[in-house]
Amino acid sequence: MSTSTPILQAQGVGVRFGGVRALDGVDLALRPGEVCGLIGPNGAGKTTLFDVLSGIRRPDEGRVLLDGSDVTRRSPVWRARHGMRRTFQRQQPFGQLTVADNLVVAQEWRGGGGGLAADLVGAPTRRPYERARRDRAAEVLALCGLGAVAESYAAALPVGRARMLELARAVADPPRVLLLDEPASGMTADESRALSAVVLRLAAEEGCAVLLVEHNVSFVMEVCARVVVLDLGRVLAEGTPAEVRADARVREAYLGTGVTN
Ligand SMILES: Nc1ncnc2c1ncn2[C@@H]1O[C@H](COP(=O)(O)OP(=O)(O)OP(=O)(O)O)[C@@H](O)[C@H]1O
């Protein structure tokens, strides 16, 4: 595994909404095994950049590279097939399914075992796939500390555990690149510590590249080796948490919001 070749890159990305420049010449590079934070005041362009990276929005300028190849015009599904996963600020579990079944369903998009017809008749060709998916679900539940609630309905989970389920769903089919949008939102201090341990393990043990947007700045500073700061659609600063904290422009953009605490 190379640590110098970026797996995901944004080059000169620009997005306009009418007269608003949501992103303007944004460059970003993410390497395998790296956990990088993306922070910035409200309206800085973080969600728009996630939309561009994940293929939900095509940029007006610039390009997105995956493994060095231009994927700017590739769909979100194509990017998912090549190992990219994303979570959203709004949680989207299947509430009427158990936690374990949510993780099985999260792997179903790959198909296998004879397709819809085989599903409808419960064909034996599906069994090896189901067994493998159940095994992977159990592994991810253990990793995420959700084993005790495996058989609970997803809709019944308290907010912190529901957030962890979002992460578990995103990694059920192992990702190479993981974009996490506000993963610690609503979590207690203990829950966000558990979350950072899972994220760090995914990066260190599976070589997953993680980019995370998070308003909880102390969480970002704890889990990320590198932080990129966006402001008004441009990269304002980039560096280690200590470098970013000490940056006068970042202090000014964040005045009174706690980044410098
Ligand atoms: N669909 C849209 N139509 C018009 N303007 C938009 C749209 N989406 C975003 N914007 C504008 O683009 C800019 C960047 O918004 P974006 O949501 O990417 O910022 P953000 O950093 O994610 O903010 P927050 O932290 O509040 O989620 C803002 O000025 C926003 O008002």
TrEMBL record:
GO CC terms of this entry: plasma membrane
Keyword Oxidoreductase annotated: no
The keyword ATP-binding is assigned to this record: yes
Record GO terms (molecular function): ATP binding; ATP hydrolysis activity
A Pfam family per the record: BCA_ABC_TP_C
Annotated signal peptide: none
Gene3D superfamilies listed in its UniProt record: P-loop containing nucleotide triphosphate hydrolases
UniProt entry keywords in alphabetical sequence: ATP-binding, Nucleotide-binding, Transport
Classification via InterPro entries: AAA+_ATPase, ABC_AA/LPS_Transport, ABC_transporter-like_ATP-bd, BCA_ABC_TP_C, P-loop_NTPase
Domain ABC transporter: 8-257
Protein name: ABC transporter ATP-binding protein
Organism, as annotated: Streptomyces spongiae
